[in-house]
Every structure is written in C-alpha cells, then in structure tokens.
Amino acid sequence: MPAVQETIDQVRSIDVDQYKYGFETEVEMEKAPKGLSEDVIRFISAKKGEPEWMLAWRLDAYKRWLTMTEPNWARVSYDKIDYNDIYYYAAPKNNPAPKSLDEVDPEILKTYEKLGIPLREQEILAGVEPSRRVAVDAVFDSVSVATTFKEELAKAGVIFMPISEAIREYPDLVRQYLGSVVPVTDNFFATLNTAVFTDGSFVYIPPGVRCPMELSTYFRINEKNTGQFERTLIIADKGSYVSYLEGCTAPKRDENQLHAAVVELIALDDAEIKYSTVQNWYPGDAEGRGGIYNFVTKRGDCRGKNSVITWTQVETGSAITWKYPSCILRGDNSRGEFYSIAVSNGMQQVDSGTKMIHLGKNTTSRIISKGIAAGKSENTYRGLVSAHRKATGARNFTNCDSLLIGNQCGAHTVPYIESKNASAVFEHEATTSKISEDQMFYCQQRGLSEEEATALIVNGFVKDVLQQLPMEFAVEAQKLISISLEGSVG
Amino acid sequence: MLEIKNLVVQIEDKRILNGLNLTVNKGEIAAIMGPNGSGKSTLSYVIAGKEDYEVLDGEIILDGQNLLEMEPDQRAAAGVFLAFQYPLEIPGVASMTFLKAAMNAQRKARGQDELTTPDFIKRVNAAAAKLEIPKDMLKRALNVGFSGGEKKRMEILQMALLEPTFCILDETDSGLDIDALRIVSEGVNALRSPDRAFLVITHYQRLLNHIVPDTVHVMSAGRIVKTGGKELALELEANGYADYRETEAA
Ligand SMILES: Nc1ncnc2c1ncn2[C@@H]1O[C@H](COP(=O)(O)OP(=O)(O)OP(=O)(O)O)[C@@H](O)[C@H]1O
Ligand SMILES: [Mg+2]
Fold first, then answer.
1. Would the CB of B46 count as within 6 Å of ligand 1?
2. Which of A111, A243, B71, B150 is least surrounded, with the fewest CB atoms within 10 Å of its CB?
3. Mean pLDDT value of segment B190-195
4. Residues of chain B with pLDDT > 90: what percent?
5. Cβ(B113) to ligand 1 under 6 A?
6. From CA A82, how far away is CA A80, in angstroms rounded?
C-alpha cells in the first residue's frame, strides 16, 4: 500500500499539537438568542423561509422532546448538558443564499481551502485539482455556504442542495420522505434535531440514474457555544446509484460542543446508496477538556427489493461518540453493510456500532468493525442484529476486532442478537489484540520508528475497511488515523 | 568494527551477561556457540537495543558509535541487523509493504532518497529469487502462517535488502531443511564483503561447513570463555561443552 509512506510523512510533520483543524475563522455571525424555546424554533424556521407545515412539525417535535429524558445506556460519561446554554442558530452575516462563490465571505472560503476542501469548480475543471471531481455542499455552523457542480448534476436529473432550499423548492418530495426513516420520537437526540435542525444536504437520484460523481458534505462548526444540528436526506429512486461522503471538523475550544445530527437514507427497488463518513470533530485535549459531543442518528431504509445500503465510517474525532448507523432491510433480497474504523486516543469515549433489522425475505447484512483504543480512551462496539418473524432466509455476518495500544485504554464488544425466524443464520466473530512489545522491537530493528511501526501495524489492522472507501478518501483516512494515534506509543 | 567491553546485563534481577568481552573486525565472520541458556540471544538483543534488559556495566561500540545510547531504529540505520531466532508475525501487513516501509525508513535515516516502486520491486524480486522465496509469499502478511523455515528465509531476505554492515544471525539454521540450509548459506555468503561483519550464533558445526567462520567463540554463563579458529567448532562437536561449563556466577 503506497500510502504507508505518506502516512509516515504525515506523522513526522506534526508537532505536539496533533489536531490540525483546530483553527478558528473570524467572521461576523448572526445568532438566535441563546437557549431553546418555541420562539427560537420560530426564529430558525423564519430564517429559512419555511412553509407552515415544517414549522408545525418542528413545534410538535419540541413539545414531545420536553417530555423525554436523555438516554444513559451507552458506555460513556459526561457532565449534564445544559440545553439552554447553547445557541441553536448561528450563520455568517449576509447569508443565506450567496448566488456564486464570489459572494461567499472570503474568510469562509479560506477556511475550506485550509481544510483542503475543493469548492472552486472552475479550478477543479481546469485540472488545477486533478481527478477530484466531487460535488461539495459546505455547511458552516447552521447554514450551507456553497454547493458545487449543481448544474452538471441537474443535467443528470440529480438534485443536490442544502435541505433548507429543498424544503422550499421540492416540498412534496421532502414531505414524502423526511422523518419516514427516523420518526420524530425515535430518540431524545433525534427529536431535538427535528425541532431545531438548521441545515444539511438533500439528495434525490431519479430512477435508473447513476450519479455522475461523488457527492459530499463538509460540516464545520466554528462559532462558540453553538450546537450543530444538521439533517440529511438521501433518496435513491428505483435502479439508481449514489456514493456520498461526509466530513467534519471543528476548532479547538475548552468547552464541549454538541453535534446532534439525523441522517435518513431511502433506497427504492434495485437502488444502491454508499454513505461514507470521515468524522474528525475536535476530540478535546489530553486532559479531556473540550471536544465535540457527537450524538448522531443515522439510519438507512432498504425500502425496495434488491436495494443496497452501505455505511462506511472512519471515526477519529469527538470527545464522545454515540452513533449507530443502521439498516432496515425491508425489501426482499435487500442488503445492508456496515464497515467501521473507530479510533480513540487521549480521554475519548466511543460507543458506536450498528443495527441490522431484517424484515424482508432473503435479506443479508455484513458488519465489519475495527476498534482501535489508545491512551486512556474507552472504545465500545454495540451492535444489534435482528430477524423479524417473516424474514425467511435472513443472513448476517459480523466481525468485530479490537486493537489496544498501551494498557490504560479499554475495548468492549456488546452484541445483541434477536431472531424470530428459525431459518435466519447469524454468524459473529470477535477478537481483541494488542500491539506487543516484541512486535514493536521487531519493526524497530528493521529501522522503523515507534510511530512508523504503529502506523504500519494499524494500517494492516484496518485494511479491510479502508478498501471500502473511495480511493482518495482512503488515503486521507489512513493519514487521519495515524495522526489520531500520534503520541500514543512510548 | 564491533567492540564489546565488560558487558554486564540483567533482566528482572537475574544476571545474564557477566562481563562479556568481544571484538569483531570488518569483513570477519565470527561464530558464537554455547550451551542453552548461556545468554547468546540476550547478547544479540542487547546489541540490537531491546528494552527490558538492564545494562549494568560495559559498552558496545560500533564503528566508533556508542550503541547503548541509541534507539533500536537508530541502531538499524547505523547498520545493525538481527535475524531473529523466533521472527515475529505482523498480521495484516503484507511482506512487500513491510519491506518497503523498512527500506525507505532506513534510507531516510541515512539521508537517501526513497526508492521508486519499480526499483523496489526489481530489488525484491531479484533477492527473493536467489533465496527461492515464491512471489505469493511476499503478498501474504509478514510471517503469519509461515513455516519455521520460511520465516528464517524471510529474515535473510530482509538482511539482503537492507544491506546492513553488522549482521547477527541467531540460530538461523534451526528449522531449515537440508536444501534450505544450503540456499540460506549461499545467501549469506553472497553478502560477505570486506565492509561487513557477521556474528553467527549456532549450535551446529554443520552450518559452519557452509558459512565458514574466521573465529569461533565459546560462550558460557554470560561470558566468552574461549576463542579460536574454525577448528574449535569441530572440537566442540566432538567433545561437547563439558570443559567450558561454569557454575553460574554468583
Ligand atoms: N525475560 C526474561 N526473564 C527472565 N529470564 C530471562 C528472560 N530472558 C532470558 N532469560 C534467561 O536468560 C538466560 C539466557 O537466555 P538466552 O535466550 O540469551 O539464551 P541462549 O544462549 O540464547 O539459549 P538457546 O541456546 O537456548 O537459544 C536463560 O536462562 C533465560 O531463561
Ligand atoms: Mg537463543
């Protein structure tokens, strides 16, 4: 794998301060008043120019949320969150709706440039950034600031736009599908998101269309004390295909910040959705100060026969990760896949996994999870595989491997299996291993430094999952993993 | 080239090397023989820089450099290579990937450019062919599921590619069948050069028929107790270690 050397270079080039996206952007912001109330929700809805039904939906969710309690079953611990000490809306002034990149605040453009995210279509098309023809929706705090390649995608009939715009322009489509996979009261954080979500991406691929390029959204939390509540909805109509990638970063701050997103995927007959995430929210410092609380609900509905949904995630950031991208295998012969690399270092806490709910006949699912724990972190895989009474011929294969670096971290595997159909076949494998001192010495004897040796062994460990990512992202992800583990040895 | 003076080493309060002295010159092949548990592998680990061993006294100088002050990877870059008695398995990392990472790491440490991929592949294929290592093996995870003999061949392949100046072979002959012993020995002999020295640890005279040593040292209870020419190995083969066995130093 040629990227190993790049990984090594990358690791070399970093100094003590390993989170390189921790800078802050100076830009004038407009915010909703602090705290959560009906008025704040009305404020958000008005800012977005939403129709009445959307406001009603939000207010209903808010009422229900007030009666709910925060879940506490995950293996994570944190101080109580004061939901009234958060800003629920923050947007750069002069926004929304810049018509072209020229209208976007140059400071914001610079931010994305620093993050290595290509927003300038012309330059990409002119070959300044070869081969990276990826359409990007860039979400900065509560609003989308730019979406690229919109026209080219429109030619193929693909709709790719901020969800706030889609609510105005394609209300029927949005209304038909929004909340149809993750119901309003699904869980505490999803309900909160329904009440206050600000932006995110909307994708619709028409029947029989293979989306002509990768789609991606980059989320950036910039503003202090601000939560990010994004909402993403992707619909792959009959016989269509789309590959979508999500990336995220945030500045370093001493206080924790909340990120509670909802992502819904719908695949109709014979459609396929590949959803990849490279999650790199600020993880907090070595003492566990600051960092993002990442409480996310992601669910895909294989609604049609022969449909396929694949979740691939590389999780390296966040102080706390609470995240279970799932598949509802409703259509006969549908397939769900979950490939995950979760890296934790320092004081990070990860509780992540998936749910594969087999409802249709001859549905199959596959789970490959690689957890890497270093420092004083805790890394838990939590997964549910269930077969409904009617799910004749359901099959699942699960493989969960954990790798420990050092002896102050923990790795845990919590599988739940429920089968109500006698013909279901579920297989589960799990291993836990450690990089031994003897292996380290062997590698060092061949000339590799401790960091290089760790990167090499870790790359070997996660290879099966990295192969699932689109090529260029795999290289990025590999670098990211090494950077996250910087300072974990010795 | 290598000079070890009065080396005293212990592990977990157990003394293993007791004032060991050893000199190996450039271009020399030095063999070390000695009873099980006399400290031969320990000596090789201490030269290569393995943690856990506490050096109480003495020094190890390689080409004027004080090895005891260097990290294992720095020692490797300085030319030290250890063919392990028990090579480690590295799951998930293809042998090819490992070889490239190791070669480039050392080149970098020596201020040389990285190898291009075609150049790398050419070198590996040539060296592997000499050692009769099939290409399939190079695609498999390093040493995982390799037979004992295959692991030893892989050690010699790494040695050939890394071009070290001071090579330690710790019982490379054990586990090799007759043909493999010949192939591996030829591989080692091909690396003989006026600028390179070898420390060959073995229990059997047989290996020394293939790799003919300049000097033979007898090690017992953590010390070199006798040094001679290649005929010393024959004498040991005939008489055993009875004459050299010491009661463990207090
Ligand atoms: N980690 C350790 N803890 C305690 N004792 C150790 C440790 N490592 C080595 N020893 C002891 O040190 C002594 C020397 O071991 P070493 O492996 O160097 O011997 P050797 O000469 O290579 O033997 P062999 O010919 O069997 O390979 C042995 O008695 C061994 O048990
Ligand atoms: Mg030994």
1. no
2. B71
3. 94
4. 82
5. no
6. 6
In the structure, what pLDDT confidence band is assigned to residue A12 with cuts at 50, 70 and 90? very low
Regarding the beta carbon of B12 and ligand 1, being less than 6 Å apart is answered yes
pLDDT in tens, A389-420: 999 999 999 999 999 988 888 999 999 999 99
Q: Which two tokens stand for residue B209?
A: 């028929």
**pLDDT band of A65, cuts 50, 70, 90:** very high
Cβ distance of B105 and A463 shorter than 8 Å: no
Does A442 lie at the interface with B, CB-CB under 8 angstroms?
yes
Residue B44 in contact with ligand 1 by CB distance below 6 A? no
pTM of the model: 0.82
Q: According to the model, what pLDDT value does residue B6 have? A: 96
Q: What 3-state DSSP class applies to B173?
A: coil
Backbone φ, ψ for residue A108 (5° rounding): -70, -40
Contact between chains at B77 and A441 (C-beta distance less than 8 A): no
pLDDT tens for B41-52 read 999 999 999 998
Percentages helix, strand, coil for chain B (3-state, rounded to 5) are 40, 25, 35
User: B40: Cβ below 6 Å to ligand 1?
Assistant: yes
Interval between CA B240 and ligand 2 midpoint (Å): 17
Cα-based distances in Å from A17 to A13, A14, A319, B92, B96: 11, 7, 16, 29, 32
Contact B98 A442 (CB under 8 A): no
Closest CA to A91 of A134, A44, A125, A56: A44
| B206, containing H or E segment | helix B205-210
CA of B17 to the centre of ligand 2 (A): 13
From chain B, pick out residues whose CB is under 8 angstroms from the CB of A447.
Answer: 73, 76-77, 102-103, 105-106, 109, 162
Please report the ipTM that was assigned to this predicted complex: 0.96
pLDDT of residue B246: 60
| Element containing residue B8 per DSSP (H, E) | strand B2-11
Q: How confident is the model at residue A111 (pLDDT cuts 50, 70, 90)?
A: low
**pLDDT at A383 exceeding the cut of 70:** yes
Contact B76 A447 (CB under 8 A): yes
Q: Is residue B44 classed as helix, strand or coil in its secondary structure?
A: helix
Q: Is A78 on the interface with B (CB under 8 A)?
A: no
pLDDT per position as a tens digit, A172-214: 999 999 999 999 999 999 999 999 998 888 999 999 999 988 8
Residue pLDDT, tens place only, A441-489: 999 999 999 888 988 998 888 888 888 877 767 777 777 787 777 766 5
Q: Name the helix (H) or strand (E) containing B199.
A: strand B197-201
